[in-house]
Amino acid sequence: MISSRGAFLELVEKATSPLLPSGHEDMATNLDVCDLIRSKSVTPQHAMQILKQRLLHTNPNVQLLALHLTDLCIKNSGMPFLKEVAGPEFMDAVTSMVRERISLPVPVRTQTLQYLQNWRYLAEAHPQDLGYMASAVRALETEHGITLPSAEAHVVAAAQALTDTLIAPDWTDSSVCTRCRADFGTFLRKHHCRNCGRVFCYKCSSKTMALPWYSIKEPVRVCDGCFKRKGPIPASKTAVPRTEASASNTTSKEDDDLARAIALSLQESSRPTEPSIERRKAEGTDADDDPELAAAIAASLREWEASSQPPPPPTSNTPSVPIPAPTATFTTPPPAVPTSSPTPMALQTRTQRPLQMDASDYDHILTFYQTVKTSSAPWKERVPTDGVPVPVQNMHTKAAASRAKLARHLDVGHRRLRELTQLHETLTDVVRLYDRLLDAQWETPPVSQRPTHPNAQDEWHTVPSAPPSLAAPTMLPSAPMDADGRVPATHTTHVSSHTPPADPASEALLIDL
């Protein structure tokens, strides 16, 4: 905004430069000034103050150029700028200059009175917004006796059209996005569309484009709807009804809607209610009343109990051998235990009862809501004397029945939610146990990968136990041998009376030693 103010001041000084020849306006610069005001690059109040300073300049040429520029801005910058110009700050300064400045040059005085008369006709076309401008100019004639020239013909003929300039709409505020209804907060900021003025989130206003119909030449942020429209927003969507006629039209429309809703409710009340009663009786809301649902739940519980039991240990036909057991409990994954899958009847039973309401129930509730919610309904004023109308009472009866049905649906939904939550917790526990089994399997190596060399350590630093064998021969102390390599009987030592007889292999080992 600061840079826009500086650019606006430079353009105004350029358009009203004392170096310009008298009677020669820089129309391109003047239109640029109007575009800056119209596009709201500068505030209307700031623009009015800059133009007022140039009008009160001491150089007559600057004053004449400022008068032409102000008149062009009044006709092309929109109603917000017109309201600032028509205010006391600007009009009192201009009228006091005409009344009190004696040294005011004649051309400047004549042009000022002419423009004031033209602006008076423009103000009379909008008395509610520009009433002070018309009264200030009228006071010059009545109170100060200043004769004003007649207004120009084209100004009188097109006073209304000259002020109806298409400008960017004012920004509206809201706590939610206009398009997606998302709530604004710390992490979701507000963004305004420069074309329609509504507030959006960043997702719904990520497009940019120029708005030449508002004199906005640079790409600015717009919403998705305005980006697709490629044009100004229709006046019917932004206009606010102010007259009594529009208020009466709105009231009549609401009365027509109420009459239509009452007629529909009367038609529905005249229909036979037997099918709905039969459907209500046939509709179950509890597992105890539905044997198929109870059977499906019981089957699911039996399947869960069967799957939670530990599988039987695998049997083997190999003979038992005294081999030392490894440190881990599992060396191979346990065999899969086939479980019975749910039958098609059970699956059909679980999904055959959707939690959906009939369209008639929605109609009953919404019709009753809209009828009672309407604040300006004529029948509400007659309730203290005449009571609640019969059609409205019928709407209440139907809405109450639909509400009871909705409560039953809600109860069934909560029960199903609890059942599914329990099944989910059970499945979580089973998966956790299975993960522990897998961890135990990976921590212990298979038996086939263990080293077979005696007294050798594998990569897990475990020493396998030696298999049972025959008793090792007892080492005897060295004794003298004869020439045939035999030990004399006198030197034979018996270690134990229970020592088994040596076999030929043991004798050969002793001979070798």
UniProtKB/TrEMBL annotation:
Domain VHS span(s) in chain numbering: 25-143
Biased composition (Polar residues): 446-455
Gene3D superfamilies linked to this entry: 1.20.5.1940, 1.25.40.90, 6.10.140.100, Zinc/RING finger domain, C3HC4 (zinc finger)
Low complexity bias locations: 487-500
Keywords assigned by UniProt, alphabetized: Endosome, Metal-binding, Zinc, Zinc-finger
Cellular component GO terms held in the UniProt record: early endosome; endosome membrane
GO BP of this protein: endocytic recycling; receptor internalization; vacuolar transport
Protein name: Vacuolar protein sorting-associated protein 27
Positions of the UniProt region annotated as Disordered: 234-351, 445-513
PROSITE patterns linked to this entry: UIM, VHS, ZF_FYVE
InterPro entries: ENTH_VHS (IPR008942), HGS/VPS27 (IPR017073), UIM_dom (IPR003903), VHS_dom (IPR002014), Znf_FYVE (IPR000306), Znf_FYVE-rel (IPR017455), Znf_FYVE_PHD (IPR011011), Znf_RING/FYVE/PHD (IPR013083)
SUPFAM superfamilies: ENTH/VHS domain, FYVE/PHD zinc finger
Family: Belongs to the VPS27 family.
Family matches, as SMART domains: FYVE (SM00064), UIM (SM00726), VHS (SM00288)
Biased composition range(s): Pro residues: 309-325
Naturally occurring in which organism (per UniProt): Malassezia pachydermatis
Membrane topology: Peripheral membrane protein
Residue ranges annotated for the FYVE-type domain, each copy included: 171-231
GO molecular function: phosphatidylinositol binding; ubiquitin binding; zinc ion binding
Location in or out of the cell: Endosome membrane
